[in-house]
Amino acid sequence: MRKIGEGTFSEVVKVQNLKNGKHYACKTMKQSINSLEQAHNLREVQAMKRLSPHPNILQLHELIFDPDTRTLSLICELMEMNIYELIRGRQYPLTENKVKHYMYQLCKALDHMHSNGIFHRDVKPENILIKHDVLKLADFGSCRSVYSKPPHTEYISTRWYRAPECLLTDGYYSLKMDIWSAGCVFFEIMSLNPLFPGSNEVDQVSKIHDVLGTPESMVLQKFKQSRSMHFDFLPRKGCGLSQLVPRCSAPSLSLLYQMLAYDPDERISARVALQHTCFRELRLGERRAVGLQRNIGTVDADTSSTPSSVEHLWRIARQVRLEHLNKSLTFVQLLNSCYTNK
């Protein structure tokens, strides 16, 4: 066993299954669990079961409950690193095509979650895992049903990735908070720096206004109706995102602005984001790969997760030659397409 991570509520170690020799990530909860039934009813466990299988959601393999110590462990697939580890200490940014590749997969994960009635509430680089260019969203301990009525009282979302409605209201937020957080991650992967590194909640709001400017009075009025305390902000223009990522293409900048819309009602959804021009070439690559797969006619989408099918998808992927895509990217697109078309 080797420790690979630790948080407030859990510890993660790398373990090996002695029967099959495979390695997994074992997440042991720090809270005491009274029974296996209680374990199965945990929000995180229920969410992972509901969302599986999906190529961009971390897979839960097994639950292990020790009644003597009342500890619960989640045995999950093992990934190589998280996004924070990927970009930490890099001297040069990733290519924009690589960034788009990751963001496309993140939007697919969020769309799958939201369409299944769940929002994550803690999207950040540390909770986004990578292996062989495949991205998977993880850590569903803060997730919530989209049908639960506000106000949501729990402390949620890491401050730097917290949406304005989470900062300026008493718990009146929705799944659109995930999109804001994903927009912050988008910027961070591009620039290698956090977008809004506030030192406290007041400074967090100030840093948002430094970049995006203060919102229109109508937007602030919405927030005021959902908060007991009074706030007013002096008008500020903001430096704009283009000043911070000058090499960012127009389509990527457009999507970034839509993900970081101050008003959650105006913020883009994950599903609409997937259709944005920013991802046009990725969608085209998917269509070509799936079309080639259908022409060959030997792999059915319903069996795309079997080992033999995976090998066949690799053979198909090698035939898809788009300049901005590498083999692993095309392979991921094929898997995503198979799950989408189920």
From TrEMBL:
ATP binds at K27. Residues 1-279 form the Protein kinase domain. Gene3D superfamilies: Phosphorylase Kinase, domain 1, Transferase(Phosphotransferase) domain 1. Signal peptide: none annotated. Transmembrane segments: none annotated. Its cofactor is Mg(2+). SMART domains: S_TKc (SM00220). It holds the Pfam family Pkinase. InterPro entries: Kinase-like_dom_sf, MAPK, Prot_kinase_dom, Protein_kinase_ATP_BS, Ser/Thr_kinase_AS. PROSITE patterns: PROTEIN_KINASE_ATP, PROTEIN_KINASE_DOM, PROTEIN_KINASE_ST. Keywords: ATP-binding, Kinase, Nucleotide-binding, Serine/threonine-protein kinase, Transferase. It comes from the Eukaryota. The keyword Cytoplasm does not apply. One of its GO terms (molecular function) is ATP binding. Belongs to the protein kinase superfamily. This is Protein kinase domain-containing protein. It comes from Astyanax mexicanus (Blind cave fish). The lineage of its organism: Eukaryota, Metazoa, Chordata, Craniata, Vertebrata.
